[in-house]
Amino acid sequence: MTYQHRVFGVALRMLGNAAEAQEVAQEAFVRAHRGLGDFRGDAKLSTWLYAITSRLCLNRLASGERRLLRQGEDALLRLADGAPRPDAALERSELEAALQRAIAELPEDRRIVVVLRDLEGLSYEEIAQVLELELGTVRSRLHRARADLKDKLERFLP
Amino acid sequence: MTCHEAREGLSAYLDEALAPEERARVEAHLASCAECQRELARLRQTVALLQRVQPVRAPVGFVDRVVAAARPRPWYRRVADAVLLPLAVKLPLQLTAAVMVGLLAVYLFERTPELQRAARQEAPRPEAPAESFADKVTRSAPAVQAPPEASSPARTGDERERHDTPGLRDTTPPAAAPAPAPPAAAPAPVLAPRPETGPAPEAKTEAPSESVGATARPETESRPRALERGAEPARPAPASPRLAAKRAPPSADVVARVAVKDRDAAERELAALIARVGGSVAQRRSEEDATVVEALIPQPRYAEFSESLTRIGSWRVEAERPDLPAQIRVILRLQ
Questions:
Q1: Mean per-residue pLDDT, A63-75
Q2: Alpha carbon of B12: minimum distance to chain A alpha carbons (Å)
Q3: CA separation for the pair B241, B257 (Å, rounded)
Q4: Nearest Cα residue in chain A from B65
Q5: Among candidates B147, B155, B105, which has minimal Cα distance to B233?
Q6: CB contacts < 8 A (A, B)
């Protein structure tokens, strides 16, 4: 269970809500346990867990309820801010809050890539495997995400 | 390479994820483009910021919940847990259960006349266990014994002898033939008595001397109605027979005991009598000390049946339904 924090972290960054993140992370482990027989030795266990978690998060984000919430910038910001109060786990500092907010505002397909790359430290190849994407797609999405974050975090840059 | 092309590769360049020749081209462009150098620097700083993000930790207890959810305990563990309650819980539970079962058994026995009858019949001396029940019936309906007494003065002696049999020991003494003329039959709505055979008036005074007879008495006096034998069984039950009726097994309308000298002979006579009144024998069985006959008697001829029965033996009603149906189910115990 050494992966618990990583799986939970990805879910929290993706969903911006600790309760939901916990739900998804738990579900990810349950599925991983059930599907252990299908686990192929050629992939790393961590990659496999990331794949399950990412899929669960993206599915949840794509579900109707979520989509309604994110119609319009206001809803998006509310979600990012975690209004009325952001999750205590995330708001360690102003920078932390700004980062979380900037990440939350990214489109999901870019958000997952930047989370896996810059927060979780996966290689491009691993991300391509986790998300079942072409390497080029991973690269371009990551670049877009970073460029976006760069603009949003301008004031924190030296 | 244009700035736009170069910038597309900057992110990968940072990550050292570019193919060697692509990387060389990006580096060539950077060397000549200050703007793209600045862009690269901002990107690098952004990534550095991101990497400073504190890793989040799963909440306390998360692992336990996951383990619990991921590994449902094997069935035998769950069964064992369910069965093997701690003693502190189990013992009071079991004790309570035992007490409840006991109470239920008593309750069912009380409420089920068949069970009581079965218990009585299985008892070694049928009279002993029946005593309380029989006594109650007898006491509440003292006239039960009266009819034979009063009915056939011609055979009084004979009847009296039979009455003195132990089975009837607690009945009214023969001299105290229970009731006065018309009301005499009244306390005996239980059994079609012979109203026409009015007992001696002097008996009147003696019957009430028995304590229970006294309770039946007001009933008697308050109902000095004409006593036709046909009407008798159908009559609404006075208080005392109702008590008996409550005890009557639902399968039978009348339960009676007949004291006879010769069971086989009595049974033959009984069969003939049942046939004569148009009834039928539903069932018979022999027991060690009794022959039990269950018969169906048409209600209009029940009085005739009960009267004739006295010629077979002296009989005593143990239980009777207050409202007798058209086909009266009679259980007779010849002994």
A1: 55
A2: 7
A3: 16
A4: A26
A5: B147
A6: 103
- Cβ–Cβ gap B51/A117 under 8 Å: no
Check pLDDT > 60 for residue B137: no
Chain A closest-CA separation from residue B69 CA (Å): 7
Which three-class secondary structure state does DSSP give residue B236? coil
Rounded to whole angstroms, what are the CA distances from B307 to B43, B248, B331?
Answer: 121, 21, 16
Best of A10, A49, A118 to mutate (most B CBs within 10 Å, chain B): A118
Torsion of CA B146, B148, B154, B157, to 10 degrees: -80
Q: How far apart are CA B328 and CA B112, in angstroms?
A: 20
* Beta bridge pairs of residue B296: B280, B329
Most A-contacting residue of B46, B57, B64, B67 (CB-CB within 10 A), to test interface: B46
- Closest among A14, A147, A109, A100 to B12, alpha carbons compared: A147
For residues B106-118, give the mean pLDDT. 83
Pairing assessment for the beta strands B254-259 and B327-334 based on DSSP bridges:
parallel
- The pLDDT of residue B185 is 43
CA–centroid distance for B128 within its chain: 26
Q: For B41-80, how does the pLDDT look when each residue is reduced to its tens digit (9 = 90+)?
A: 999 999 998 888 777 778 877 777 777 776 666 677 777 7
Residue B67: the pLDDT is: 73
ipTM above 0.90 for this complex: no
Q: Which residue of B has its CA nearest to A27?
A: B66
B196-236: per-residue pLDDT in tens? 444 444 444 444 444 444 444 444 444 444 444 444 444 44
- Enumerate the residues of chain B whose CB falls inside 8 A of the CB of residue A1: 63, 66-67
